[in-house]
Amino acid sequence: MVKAGIIGATGYTGVELIRILSRHPEVEVVGITSNSYVGKEYSDIYPSLKGYFSLKCEELNIKDLIKKSDVIFSALPSGHAHAIAGEIVASGKKLIDLSADFRFYDLSLYEKWYGNVPILDECIKRAYGLPEIHRREIKEANVVGNPGCYPTSAILGLAPALKYDLIKSEGIIIDSKSGVSGAGHSPTLNNLYAECNESIKAYGVASHRHTPEIEQELSHIAGRCIKVTFTPHLVPMTRGILSTIYCDLKEVHTLQQVREAYAEYYSKEPFVKVLGEGQYPRTKDTYASNNCHIGLAYDEHTGKLLIISAIDNLMKGASGQAVQNMNLLFELPEDMGLDFPAIYP
User: Which residues 6+ apart lie within 8 Å of 285 measured at CB?
Assistant: First the structure.
């Protein structure tokens, strides 16, 4: 059994991790930490898990957590995982970080967008945790930087088009919409029901932190510098991300060729589903699953290829993907503990 510890277990990504891992046949959760609920029984905080998971929240003692864990999930905000990564890895354990601390190849980019200087121990061998793109690197890593939710939807949507050189590099527009759970568990004015219900708004316009992460991975896939226009929106639903991506299809390709390329690229991927002609993703169809749905269309009037992707931001966009990465690290079947369909309706 893989023994797992979770730091920051009472946020939305933490509770989603525990929901998955409590039913994982090869994992035992041995320690959970929380600043706000020290000493409290987890199923009293989240009654949905009563009868499925029983453990009390502890104050973080990293040495004790390392001692009893094989892998530690950090579900804290960005800026916290750097301080503990070296100690975890030096003890022969693995770290999966759900913040941005280990997502960037160029650490100056992290400093520019997140405002503090990362310190990496020499023993850290890190990987960007998007299995469909970096499976081999993840298997060999001891620290995995779990991708952001918006980048996951955008990168999976664009990867085949760039890999097979189906689209032009310039003028890519990513319009993404997310449910309110993407803002986290802590209450803020903008996330109150009366503020976000019956409303939709753009935020982080021309300045969102996920932009450089998206560009980093798309450039890696394409083998050339890719810049995008990315605008996220908050919509009044609990969970889910829908990204509509606009790009210029190269004239030598047809939509049928694009569809065939996508089907081939994702043919062996357990969690990416390329929809048929005339079918387009809905967040409802990925709700509470680790799946990504992708739909394709061509606008003859403008010559634009439209790529639409949908994920659950707390699953494939966060905790489900983190468990997928854990399975890779410990040579377990990649879909173990994750092989279930979306909740519907």
Answer: 293, 310, 342, 344
Token pair of 91 as six digits: 């003890």
Q: Residue 46 pLDDT more than 90?
A: yes
Pick the CATH number of 2-124 from 3.40.50.10490, 3.40.366.10, 3.40.50.720, 3.50.50.60: 3.40.50.720
Catalytic residue among 57, 123, 149, 196: 149
Could you tell me the fold of the domain covering 150-313?
Dihydrodipicolinate Reductase; domain 2 (3.30.360)
How many angstroms separate the CA atoms of 152 and 209, rounded? 14
Over residues 3-25, the mean pLDDT reads 97
Residue 196 is among the residues annotated as catalytic for this protein: no
Decide: 269 and 132 in contact? Cβ < 8 Å: yes
Instruction: Note the pLDDT tens digit of each residue in 130-169.
Output: 999 999 999 999 999 999 999 999 999 999 999 999 999 9
Domain ranges of the chain: 2-124, 150-313
Rounded CA separation 104/237 (Å): 30
Secondary structure class of 299 (helix, strand, coil): strand
Percent of the chain with pLDDT over 70: 100
